[in-house]
Structure formats: C-alpha cells, structure tokens
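Give me the fold.
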Amino acid sequence: MVPPDATALPDRHVCEQARLSRDARFDGLFFTAVTSTRIYCRPVCPAPAPKPQNIVYYRNAATAEAAGFRPCLRCRPELAPGDGAWRRGDEVVARALKLIDQGALVDAPVANLAERVGLGERQLRRLFTDRLGATPVDVHGTRRLLFAKQLLTETTLPITQVALAAGFGSLTRFNTAFREEYRMAPRDLRKRELPPTHEVMTLRLGYRPPYDFTAMLDFLRGRALPGVEVVDERSYLRVIGTPDAPGWLRVSAWDATSHALRLELHGSTPSDLLQIVSRLRRMFDLDADPAAIADALGDDPRLRPLLAARPGLRLPSGWDGFEIAVRAVIGQQVSVAAARTLTARLAQRHGTPLTIPFDGLTHLFPTPDLLADVDLTEIGLTRARADTIRGLSRALLDGRVDFRPERTLDDFTSRWVALPGIGPWTAHYMALRALGHPDAFPADDLVLQKAVPTDGTRITAKALTARADAWRPWRAYAVIHVWKGSMAAPRPLVAVGAT
C-alpha cells in the first residue's frame, strides 16, 4: 500500500515555492525541466531560476528523460533521494521498483519482472505508465545511467568498470546509451582530474531532510557485533564481501551542511557497487519522506509529540537478512545487551576470520550453510533457540523462506511463522530490520503494549493492532517513535507469542 497521492505531482504552486526557495524537503519528489535548455534539475538546483513559462514539472527522473530532457551537471539529479512512497510497501509498483533497484532488468526481460510480481507483462507496463509516466525499461535505464554519471563524476574508476558497475554488458553499449541520452561521451565528464583514491572509493548518498543520523548511529551502536561492525558517534563501519574477497565500508555524515551521507568503500568489485548502494539506502532509510510520514501519523495524539521531538527519525534496517534473522531469534526474551553478547560470540566462533583484520574488523558473519548443522548450545543458547537457528538456516538454503523484495508483508511473515520457533513478533521484527518494510508491526512487543497507552495500562496485541490500522502504511515508523520515546529504543525484550 502507498499513500493515495503518490501518483501525483505536488500542486504546481507548491512546486514553484519549493523550487524558488530550493527547499530540500522536496528533493527527489519532483524534477524541474526547462524547455529552453532541454535540461532537468532538482528543486534544490543552485542555478539561476528559469522563467516559469519555460518550466515543466515531472514526478521522477525517468519521466523527464523519456520526454527528452538531460540531467543538470550542476545540481546532479543522480544525487537526489528516491521517492520513498514508490519504493516501499506492498503495492505492485513498489515491489517492482525494489526489484529494479536490485538489478532485476540487467540480465532479464520485463516479462520476468512482471512474473515475479504476479502480473502479465502488458499489465505491468500499463501500470508503470499510469502511475509513474515511464515504463519499467525507462526507469531501469535512467537509474543505471544516473549511477554511471555519479561514478564518472566522483570516482576514478576506469570507464570500462563504470559501465560494468552500472549494469551494461559492454563498453560499446554503455557509450552508445550515454551519448544518445545525454548528448555527450562518458569521457567528457572526466575532464576534471580527481585526486587519487588510494583504493578507497567515496560516494555521496543523498537524503531528504530532516534526518537524525545521530539516532541511527545510537541504535546501530547498541547492537554492533565486535569484529563484524564498529560504530562510534560519527560513523558505521563493517566488513562485507566473501571469504575470498573481503572488503569494508564506512558510512558517516558528508558535512554539516549537505543533506547526504559519505560512503567509503574498499575491496568491492564494480559489479557489486549498485547493489551495495541499494542496500545502504535501505539500511539507512535514505529515501523516506519525513513530511508524508508525519502527515499520516500526526493525527494520533500519542504519536504527535514524538514526531515533533524527533522529526528526522528513520527505520534502522540491517545489512544482511540472515544476520538480522539470527539476531531476532537470539533476542527473543532477552535484553539487547545479552542478545548482542550471544550473537557476537556466534560470529566469532562460526564466522570466517579475515586474513588481514582492519580497524577492529576481524570476521565475516557466518552464512546459513555454516550454521545449518552446528551445535549452538556451546555458545550459551538454549536448545530451543539453537534448533530455531539451525532450522531457519536450512529453510533459507532450501528456499522455504527468503528476503526477496517482491514478497508482500503478509507473504513474508506467513512463510517465516511456519517455521518452528518463529512467531509473529519475530517475523515482523525481521520485516522491519531486514527489509526496512514501512508497515511492519510487531504487535506482540511488550514495550509497545505498555508505551502506547498513556494511563499506565497495558494494551493487548489485538487492541494495539486495531489502533494501529490508522497508521498504515507507516506503522513501522510509529513503532520506532514509540520505542525511542519510551527510552527503550527498539529492543527485543519479551516477545509475547514468539514461540
């Protein structure tokens, strides 16, 4: 489900005001195309304002490019945050966009994408055209060309590797597509010499303000696994990759004035770059629209003061679905500190050690095949928890459960609760932390049941679910705000119904 106005542009007067004031809250929610120059810009573009009669507004970059406009070299539309209303939730377009973000159209036709979301190809094309004003191929093409443009501008990657990172099968195809769309060769963006990177790549990840990065780091720091992650007051650092090709990434604030995070990468192959960026945008919830969320939740008297106190609070997701699933099971009915200790012990005992540790990083988190048949009671888990982790590892390996983006929330949770030891609380917690699903709602959580009422009573899961119906499709944001407001920021304390 997406908000009913997600298909429409903001009112033209609103667009005009946002453009003239360069309001960053509207960044990525619409684009300004100038008919006299055939260039489209973000609403925050610092260039002199064009005449109103020369302006056409578009809902997304793909529609602007399909209409023959080129991206501005000054404000760089590739840095705009995505439209979170369309890339979140269960609506067909949202699920299809998540698949496109993960590269579903790189090596497969639109028919395959349509099948994965349960539609015919013609239906999906029509739906995209009606809702977004662009076809799935248009959206895919715009996304990969804009990502290539960012790599050409911000990195020293050879153009051949830029083409690979953006999902092009050959340099010739990349050069042709870039010239046809932008009327310039990729090398033309390389006229300015960039400083040497010393094997560390830096990319800018834009977001729509306000953004409470401090709260995000606080949440992640309380759950950071020694050896796998290092989180301080300024940055998040973790090991990524495979045992044969490990690497690391660090996320920090870009600077005090930019609405962006800084991503530093080491050891990643070009073909992995787009996937890494997509995962981090989901993990740090960079495409959320705080104003739309506040509008939807602000009518509730319990949530209104929480939203006012923390307008930039986001959903703190996780890097890897399996890692979050293991954390969720270990966290059933124990404190955050105890769960972290046990999970860190598991990672140290069964994870893959790095040949060359880096800055506190020593191990890759274990994969399902490494935990499917081990005795985890040796690290202090109960027999039931150990069995559950082995069971979910086997279920992931044989395909009974997964973290595929085309799953609806109901489909995802129903598959997981079918496994022994996984109750509704655990499944919804995984949907929130592993998928970043905006409507995940662990109604069995005792913190929620006690914190939502203001009279000292405890509400039942059924009554809480009924009250939260008005919070759709942003119930997960209500959860985060209540957890944070209760001074017990998201913790799997006692999950009633987690079997």
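The chain has three domains: 12-79, 92-190, 285-485.
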